[in-house]
Fold this sequence. Notes:
Blueprint: H1 2-22, H2 33-95, H3 98-114, H4 118-126, H5 128-166, H6 185-195, H7 210-233, H8 235-244, H9 246-250, H10 256-263, H11 269-326
Helix pairs in contact: 1-2, 2-5, 2-11, 3-4, 3-8, 3-10, 4-7, 5-6, 5-7, 5-11, 7-11
Amino acid sequence: MSISRSAAARTIAIVMTIQFAGGCASTRDAISLPVLKQREQALKRADSRDLDLKVEIARRRSLELLKNFEASVSSAEANYVPKFAAASNSAAERGAEIESMVATVYYLAKDQAFSTVETDEYFDKSLGPILRPPIEAFGRDVDKLAAKLEADLRVITVELGSNLNAGRSAANPNAQVGLPHVTTWSEFDKVLLGLGYSSPGIALYAATNVNRIATSSVLPQLLKPISLNASRVFATLVARVVASGGLVMVGGPLPIGEILAALNLLWSTYELTQLQPRYRSEIRSSAISNFDSVRGKVSMHAREFAREKAKAFDTLQVGMRDQAVGGL
């Protein structure tokens, strides 16, 4: 490491001073060893302060990245509010179509009579394609922001390692040298080791995938409240279907036309039309409310990830400073 070269340079300077002192005509002109020791310690303290300043600047840059990340997440949240509202409106219109309402009543009655879960499956197929895309897109956008934060933190850390090794003066602590590209964790690890610093460790490799969390758990959170609302809105009709034995006549999940033909014997289209505005409103308000909840959870997870990641990098950067001081 070039850090050890600075120590070597000081040792040479001290030896030269001793040699110069030995050649003096008078011993009073010679510099005593204790004085040389004091000067060496003063130089070390100055170098240590220089290293501290470089680390502090890197930490400030990292903190600024974290603030920018959180601001970008907030901006993404705001940008998706109208997209979530549009999806909620589309889902409400789709779910409140007469054929959709008939199918919903049928599946609710079947679930109640036979302890199945076909209503949830129906909503997943009919409303899922409408509600899923915006939340997945939001997750992907937040993922990109998180990936950029990681990449920028890696760059700052590699630049810090190079600056610590270069022994630049505090007068120009932001000076940087040409550095290899560190787009991946393996490249980052390799470059740091090449600079003489320990591997960052497993804490830095912990990755997040907000989009994965969204696709695995978010959609059921969006659809289940709609199913519960449907149970309340259509409670009377569902009870009538179950009591009439109409489900036996229908048998199983038939094409919607056949379901309409069979179940319309049990209630009039007028009844469904009367319930239509209420059901449409229930779907819309439920979807918007749950979009807000999901959006908040995804954003909170992303912010927690970012803080933990920044904390891990901060620990690494301080450790690099300690290694550099040890080489003085």
